[in-house]
Amino acid sequence: MQTRQYRRIGEIGYGMAMSATETAVDAPEIGLRELKKQMTHDAIAQAAFRLTLEKGLDHVTIEEIAREAIVSPRTFSNYFSSKEEAVVSAGSEDPQEFLPAFREALEQEPPLRALCQVLSDFYASRTEEQLDRSLQLLGLVERYPSLLQGQVGRFATIEAELRDAVAEHTGTDAETDMYPWLMAAAGMASLQAALRLWAASGRGADHLVELLQDAFNQFSAGLPVPGR
Amino acid sequence: MQTRQYRRIGEIGYGMAMSATETAVDAPEIGLRELKKQMTHDAIAQAAFRLTLEKGLDHVTIEEIAREAIVSPRTFSNYFSSKEEAVVSAGSEDPQEFLPAFREALEQEPPLRALCQVLSDFYASRTEEQLDRSLQLLGLVERYPSLLQGQVGRFATIEAELRDAVAEHTGTDAETDMYPWLMAAAGMASLQAALRLWAASGRGADHLVELLQDAFNQFSAGLPVPGR
DNA sequence: GGCGATATTGCCTTGTTTGCAATATTGCGC
DNA sequence: GCGCAATATTGCAAACAAGGCAATATCGCC
Which domains does chain A have, with CATH numbers? Predict the structure, then answer.
């Protein structure tokens, strides 16, 4: 999980050196150093997540997490500003994984449809293990409200990126135009509702996708009252 | 600000005793004790808010806030679990102020329209001072990301109450039906978008109401792409 | 192989959180 | 009014967390 993609930093500098090696599709082009950083990041997050599952959030200390990840407590603080952040980071999706796809899809479909498509694809292609992890996180968030804030913060970040993407694409300004806000919010609301209902249903990944599409469809239809 | 309304607790008990005194419209019917609690709650929140405006969030300590509100630091912790919570609590609207109205409006209009109406009325009837306070909070949230989490948490609470109200009214189950989730989320998204654009616009309360209604209209219309 | 950049760590200070027990205040029946 | 029960407030203390700073270790690159 947490496979990362890195922003291309123009053509600056590295050009000569790397044209020799294979310019891999989603390769970092950023040294081994950065890679190791990601690894410790993930190691800490994993440790936090696992220990929380085992012992409950408030019986886990930063010191313990750090020991588990084989770093100093001080290093923990260099990566995360709280236990909660670490736990949530380990269990949830990395927005960088579908944002590029969303930007591409925007070229071909209206935003709402594009996002629906991208998210559906994304979740349809997740492994059992990844989905399990999402379920576990949902459970933890329900059990510990303090995690909720961390998660909501994470969602807010994704929403902001979606908003920017939409604003950029439609040529509207997120400072004065409402559409990007509503669009991004509708997307995240669909995702969140689908995830929670899916978790409650106890069914498989295909049901999650159904729920997602249902949510998007309701938004497209102007949120008709179900009963009538 | 923060005028509270209390749930009517049926006809239990107090009947005899209070029929003598005036059964005030939004009166607590809950002793002086409860009232004082609200007062210290507000006093602490006010202190937190004002000090943060003056000195910046991270130059304010709980001890200081407590002194300002004339309570012990320990008492602060009895009311709020963090500075952030206190600050946000002081600056933002109390959901109890429009939830009852929303429940009533649900009897007469479809949910989306009902919520739009209730929120419009609510903000239209706010004083300059109250609106100023909202603006100040928006500014603070922008300046200090850690406040954002507190605010989002507060919004989440309101959203949950909206959701329950909608689920209850439409007879749907929030555990299995998606409509209440989407409906509540759309409402809060409209509110948030309207507030932020309004803050950026620097215009008056009537513009906020316009923005609110615009947002709700876009949702009703199925979020059409603006350009075409 | 050495140098510059940067990641990691330890130390330390300040602030936060929470349980517990003591104290003060309030509501209410008499 | 008076006193009792309920509960709000406080002080104390211990455990934990956050973050600046400087020393050290490690990496990438020439």
Answer: 18-80 (1.10.10.60), 95-220 (1.10.357.10)
